[in-house]
Amino acid sequence: MPAEQPSRLQRAQRMLVRLSQLTQQKGGHRLALVIFAAKAKLVCPLTHDYDHFREVVLKYDLKHLDPSIWPDKNDVSGTRIGTGLLQAVEAHDQGDSETQSILLLSDGDDPVNEDDWRFIGVPDATHRAIPIHCVGIGDELEQTIPAAKFNSQPVKTKLNEEPLQDIAERTGGVYIHAGRSEIDADAIFRLTLSSGGLRDKGVDRLPVYRQQFAWFLTPAFVLLLGAIAIRGKLR
After folding, report:
1. What is the pLDDT of residues 188-217, one digit of tens each?
2. Which residues pair with 80 in a beta bridge?
3. Residue (of 174, 183, 187) closest to 132 by Cα position
4. 175: number of Cβ within 10 Å
5. How would you write the chain as a 3-class SS string?
6. What is the pLDDT of residues 19-76, one digit of tens each?
7. How many CB atoms lie within 10 A of CB 161?
8. CA 156 to CA 78: how far, in whole Å?
9. What's the rounded Cα separation, in Å, for the pair 71 and 78?
10. What whole-number distance in Å separates Cα of residue 186 and Cα of residue 189?
11. How much is the pLDDT for 177?
């Protein structure tokens, strides 16, 4: 997202790469990645292939976005946090919640303030006892994204921490403020992911301990970059 330099996308990617390296060093943890805007998509299912995970993380930029998650004229908002969280919950193995977590990277800003996550995503994670750890990324002062349009209107963004704090509290996770700073992957690992898990029972099991994590690129990354790419269609 070009509103900040370095962009939120670049900072999130660097953090996820570093976090995957720390996870790999501990051994055995399976990782997954979900991206979302108006819709959500599992772009990397749970895997021990850390190199593949990092390749998926790094392949998204202004020129490489997935149009299947972009908002269309029937969407009321391009930021569906609940839809993304539901996709992450469904990406986890059933009946193994003691070893599962979700890490949400987001600015928390829903343009229509519907808080869809209250009705989908968060209730599903709570039912499965999956904690959602949230990292708040972005400027607290509202900014207009250059050249971006949604429904013929300029796209604006700001960090809205309240819903992210609420999501973490409701699910037993933690909230971490990143703002415009570089995201400290080592601190996030210590706070959220460093506890031991159960031994892997899957078909691709490793002889080490593991937990399962579904991670996100923030909706602003995909929504606002996507809005730049499709602005001509939505005017």
Report:
1. 888 877 654 333 444 444 333 345 666 655
2. none
3. 174
4. 20
5. CCCCCCCHHHHHHHHHHHHHHHHHHHCCCEEEEEEECCCEEEEEEEECCHHHHHHHHHCCECCECCHHHCCCCCCCCCCCHHHHHHHHHHHCCCCCHHHEEEEEEECCCCCCCCCHHHCCCHHHHHHCCCCEEEEEECCCCCEEEEEEEECCEEEEECCCHHHHHHHHHHHCCCEEEEECCCCCHHHHHHHHHCCCCCECCCCCCCCCECCEEEEEECHHHHHHHHHHHHHHHHC
6. 999 989 876 688 999 998 888 899 999 998 999 999 999 988 766 677 777 777 776 6
7. 17
8. 12
9. 5
10. 5
11. 93
Q: pLDDT over 90 for what percent of the chain?
A: 31
Q: Are 36 and 84 in contact (CB under 8 A)?
A: yes
Higher pLDDT, 220 or 127: 127
* Burial readout 116-151 (b: 16 or more C-beta within 10 A, e: otherwise): bbeebbbbbbeebebbbbbbbbbeeeeeebeebbbe
pLDDT of residue 200: 40
Looking at residue 149, its pLDDT comes to 55
More confident residue, 119 or 110: 119
Single-letter amino acid code for the residue at 57: V
Longest dimension (CA), the chain: 55
